[in-house]
Task: inverse folding
């Protein structure tokens, strides 16, 4: 019997699939140590205000309450939360951010106090009794309004509400715009959405003497340990972070959130294990994106784009120590995407407002660049009367031009963007859609097709921050031949552990079932950086490969001696050479139990290696550009939509994604990631939106008001793969965790505009909810009357 | 300080009305609205009266009239032959879990402007049977709903059953933003001898009932569409003006209500397959 394929490029089932599907996996909330207490966070009811006083008397005497903590008390025990990416390190404004507000609150929902009690219900009831007296200050909820000189200031020692202003790009876009045959301009608003993982955040802290163990639903256990050591003033060696199964992260669970320090502190002060699990209303506070772009694009009559100028105002809400505030930088630097436009100027203002902070989110700002660029390309095509597909073809960085340095500094490793375009047009049957569109228009129905190209920089590195572009893995074979892989990358639920196990099994020539993966435990795993930026298979897979090759070399050397030949092969758990076979476990046992008989081979079947991919360059070039990403995935999306012009409702009819993430380790896992990202993009394109009332309180605090797409809203997402290996990574693979958000938004928006072309509609943002689409139709009718 | 509410699960209707007699209890039907509110601590009732075992579920038909027990679930309705309500129940958002729990009586009593049930009951000229410790009274569906989340039911009364006359020709269209959204506008059309009765849900705080002329030149006829627009706009005003919430502004609901009304007429008249 031959086993199902498990090597690189095959899709064995997930190692933990059965456990997950049968509800036996252990998530954060499943950890319930004896004596555990529950924490509930008291959150600000006002968007901006000074805390006059906090009365905790009633809460303290409520049943079951062990501890009530205010910001002033917390500040005596815990320092400011270190930034994942410190704005000061990038020349921006910063503020000390603490686990509980001290003196002032800057958004509704900000933690101001915490209650610890025997049960969650008791903690909730007591939290309701905490009385906070605020001096309410004027607030600002809109980034453009926050830019005004007389706008309320969130951080009084700043000159305004701007975290930083940056300018990117090379060349002389103004001159190119002046020479262009046509200049199209537009304003695009991308509304605030969120990530909404199935499992919200949660932490469980337990102290044993001066040693702290934190179980966390998080992405970056080592950075969390580093951070807690800093805030709590505890030696890092006395902290252990364990990340159990994680039910989705999407960037939200990168650390820097106030509750991480808070829960550890509450446990220390209460003298008992303390758990806090976010509820859905709290999870929905986290923003994922919100930007306004004003752009001008110059093009020649043949469709060649010669200049791009874009002014971005990014609303990050209040400042956060989490990585979320930095996302708009990537919106700027990902422009002009995969198009050869040397003359660009991108101006970026990152602005604070009295809304909850952005948390990092899949796409990490790159999605906004894709959306805006793809809208711009379609507007050029429309203006010139050209086919949008052809305008893309004319402007793509050609396949023979890689590595290609963009105007904003990114060095695209490889790609075949025209190939993606051809595959997409073919898969979606572009001519067929156009024929159906013509037929339906005769009957007063509006079918449209839209394209969205996406260039997805992945596996980032940012010196001096918690963002590292390398990672570390240990591969260890035991005396019985079983393999333990301990890696610094973690799985947010996407299954990279299966991919890494495949790589190790393939390198060692042993069955996949022999390989055990250990992730997310700072006491067991080597130093690493967890999960973000599509890095897990690039650097986790890369370091696992190096370590496995060391072990493999040792096995080969031992087997060569035992088989008395230099020509040994390892396959399916058997060493073969000189016409004889020897099970790999026997080779391992020989080395580890008969080390002196074997001779001068060091008796260790273990290796720890780090992998640094190529193509990262932090030395600014003559234009000040740096290059923080090794790999650039690319994808081309086509959406076919039916628009009900009487109600404004957009129905997705078909969807194709042609995807190129280089070598695929496990295609099924890649498709899982891509479908998730596309669905996230479709939701933000059509229905999702965080809304706030006039006082800055979240109005969309549940899934009946924050509308995620459900299965019935999403057609079969058809995947086409193209493989253009990266020259800068171990297996030629590129990040595959994020691609799809901006491409989906763009494809849908372009499809809606295409559908409603007879009405002359121009799309100006997302989400394209039915009321928004109807408003666009009205606007077009007014414009033409 | 909150304490757990008293939980009462009567075995029959008399037990229910007795438990309600002091007027302080919160009634739990299928629990799809009440239980989440309790979970999140948004309501803190002193007593809960669970109708689950009071024998109020089930559909019986006699002499052209159907009696639907208040605790009849959407799933039971879906598999019943009750005109319009079976169609409505089939499209309830939330999947099998919600359809197995949610009840027609619970939805009527909750009187959420965005729910499917109220407008369908008004369209059918259903009669609602309210029971209290001293007896019963019957209220026409059109008189039952007073405003958003408000009905004529007194705190010591329970909606026990709903009487539905036989209706053969109807059309039901529901407009949602996406699968997971509450209905934004629903339209239930019942065809009468020489007119159409269309009742809109979601458009106003209470169901908006309008009488329309039959479309002699089809439902796409611009003149008939103008007639629908005028009638629906007026009906919405009478029903309290356009309903507005975080999902859709009132002006949008008012705008599409005539469209959804016309589509439900088209369906009732079999212009397209039902």
Result:
């Amino acid at each position: 019997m031959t086993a199902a394929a498990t090597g690189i490029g095959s899709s064995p089932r997930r190692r933990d699939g059965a456990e997950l599907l049968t509800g036996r996996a252990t998530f954060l909330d499943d950890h319930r140590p004896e004596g555990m207490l529950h924490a509930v966070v008291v959150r600000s009811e006002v968007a901006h205000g000074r805390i006059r006083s906090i009365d905790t008397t009633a809460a303290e005497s409520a049943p079951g309450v062990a501890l009530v903590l205010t910001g002033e008390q917390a500040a005596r025990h815990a320092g400011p939360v270190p930034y994942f990416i410190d704005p000061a390190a990038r020349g921006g404004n910063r503020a000390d951010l603490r686990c509980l507000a001290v003196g002032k609150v800057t958004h509704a929902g900000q933690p101001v106090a915490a209650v610890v009690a025997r049960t969650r219900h008791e903690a909730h009831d007591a939290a309701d009794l905490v009385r906070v007296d605020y001096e309410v200050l004027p607030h600002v909820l809109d980034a453009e309004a926050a830019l005004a000189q007389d706008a309320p200031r969130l951080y009084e020692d700043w000159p305004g509400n701007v975290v930083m202003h940056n300018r990117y790009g090379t060349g002389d876009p103004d001159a190119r715009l002046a020479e262009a045959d046509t200049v199209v301009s537009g304003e695009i608003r991308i509304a605030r959405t969120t990530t909404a993982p199935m499992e919200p955040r949660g932490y469980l802290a337990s102290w044993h003497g001066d040693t702290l163990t934190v179980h966390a639903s998080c992405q970056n256990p080592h950075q969390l340990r580093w951070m807690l050591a800093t805030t709590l003033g505890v030696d890092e060696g006395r902290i252990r972070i364990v990340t159990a199964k994680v039910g989705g992260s999407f960037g939200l669970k990168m650390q820097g959130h106030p509750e991480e320090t808070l829960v550890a502190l509450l446990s220390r002060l209460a003298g008992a294990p303390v758990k806090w699990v976010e509820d859905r209303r709290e999870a929905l506070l986290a923003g994922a994106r919100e930007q306004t772009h004003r752009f001008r694009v110059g093009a020649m009559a043949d469709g060649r784009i010669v200049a791009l100028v874009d002014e971005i105002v990014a609303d990050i809400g209040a400042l956060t120590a989490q990585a979320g505030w930095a996302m708009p930088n990537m919106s700027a630097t990902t422009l002009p995407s995969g198009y050869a436009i040397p003359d660009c100027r991108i101006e970026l203002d990152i602005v604070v407002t009295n809304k909850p902070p952005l948390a990092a989110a899949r796409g990490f700002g790159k999605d906004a660049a894709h959306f805006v660029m793809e809208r711009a390309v379609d507007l050029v095509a429309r203006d010139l009367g050209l086919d949008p597909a052809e305008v893309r073809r004319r402007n793509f960085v050609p396949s023979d031009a890689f590595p290609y340095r963009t105007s904003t500094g990114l060095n695209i490793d490889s790609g075949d963007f025209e190939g993606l375009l051809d595959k997409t047009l073919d898969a979606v049957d572009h001519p067929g859609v156009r024929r159906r569109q013509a037929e339906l228009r005769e009957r007063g129905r509006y079918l449209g097709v839209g394209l969205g190209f996406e260039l997805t920089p992945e596996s980032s590195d940012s010196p001096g921050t918690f963002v590292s572009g390398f990672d570390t893995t240990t591969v260890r074979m035991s005396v019985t031949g079983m393999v333990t892989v301990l890696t610094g990358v973690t799985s947010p639920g996407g299954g990279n552990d299966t991919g890494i196990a495949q790589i190790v099994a393939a390198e060692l020539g042993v069955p996949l079932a022999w390989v055990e993966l250990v992730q997310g435990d700072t006491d067991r795993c080597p130093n690493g950086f967890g999960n973000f930026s599509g890095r897990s298979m690039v650097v986790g897979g890369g370091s696992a490969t190096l370590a496995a090759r060391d072990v493999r070399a040792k096995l080969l050397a031992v087997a060569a001696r035992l088989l008395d030949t230099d020509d040994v092969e390892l396959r399916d758990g058997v060493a073969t050479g000189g016409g004889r076979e020897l099970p790999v476990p026997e080779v391992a046992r020989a080395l580890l139990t008969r080390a002196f008989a074997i001779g001068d081979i060091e008796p260790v079947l273990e290796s720890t290696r780090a992998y640094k991919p190529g193509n990262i360059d932090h030395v600014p070039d003559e234009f000040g550009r740096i290059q923080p990403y090794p790999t650039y995935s690319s994808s081309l999306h086509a959406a076919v939509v039916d628009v009900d012009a009487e109600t404004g409702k957009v129905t997705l009819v078909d969807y194709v994604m042609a995807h190129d993430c280089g070598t695929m380790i496990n295609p099924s896992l890649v498709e899982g990631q891509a479908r998730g990202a596309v669905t996230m993009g479709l939701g933000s394109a059509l229905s999702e939106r965080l809304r706030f009332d006039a006082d800055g309180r979240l109005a969309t605090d549940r899934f009946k008001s924050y509308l995620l797409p459900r299965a019935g809203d999403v057609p079969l997402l058809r995947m086409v793969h193209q493989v253009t290996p990266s020259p800068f990574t171990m297996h030629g693979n590129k990040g595959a965790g994020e691609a799809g958000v901006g491409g989906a938004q763009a494809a849908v928006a372009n499809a809606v505009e295409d559908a409603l072309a007879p009405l002359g509609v121009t799309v100006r943002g997302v989400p394209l909810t039915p009321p928004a689409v109807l408003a666009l139709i009205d606007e077009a009718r007014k414009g033409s009357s | 300080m909150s304490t757990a509410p008293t939980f009462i699960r009567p075995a029959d209707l008399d037990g229910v009305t007795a438990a309600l007699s002091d007027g302080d209890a919160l009634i739990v039907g299928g629990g799809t609205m009440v239980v989440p509110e309790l979970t999140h601590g948004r309501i803190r009732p002193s007593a809960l009266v669970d109708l689950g075992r009071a024998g109020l579920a089930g559909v019986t038909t006699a002499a052209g009239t159907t009696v639907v027990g208040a605790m009849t679930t959407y799933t039971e309705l879906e598999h019943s032959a009750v005109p319009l309500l079976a169609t409505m129940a089939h499209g309830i958002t939330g999947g099998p879990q919600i359809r197995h729990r949610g009840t027609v009586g619970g939805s009527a009593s909750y009187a959420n402007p965005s729910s499917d049930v109220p407008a369908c009951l008004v369209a059918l000229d259903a009669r609602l049977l309210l029971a209290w410790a001293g007896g019963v009274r019957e209220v026409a569906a059109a008189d039952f709903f007073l405003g958003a989340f408000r009905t004529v039911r007194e705190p010591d009364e329970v909606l026990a059953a709903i009487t539905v006359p036989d209706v053969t020709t109807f059309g039901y269209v529901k407009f949602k933003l996406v699968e997971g959204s509450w209905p934004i506008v629903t339209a239930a059309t019942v065809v009468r001898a020489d007119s159409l009765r269309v009742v809109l849900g979601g458009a106003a705080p209470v169901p908006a009932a309008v009488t329309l002329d039959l479309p002699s030149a089809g439902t796409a006829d611009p003149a008939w569409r103008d007639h629908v627009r005028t009638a629906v706009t007026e009906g919405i005003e009478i029903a309290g003006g356009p309903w507005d919430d975080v999902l859709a502004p009132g002006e949008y609901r008012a705008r599409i209500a005539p469209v959804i009304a016309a589509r439900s007429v088209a369906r009732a008249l079999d212009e397209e397959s039902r």
Remarks:
- The longest strand of chain A covers residues 446-458.
- The longest helix of chain A spans residues 536-563.
- The interface with chain B takes residues 62-63, 124-125, 128, 279, 281, 646-649, 686-687, 691, 699-700, 703-705, 707-713, 769-771, 774 of chain A (CB under 8 Å).
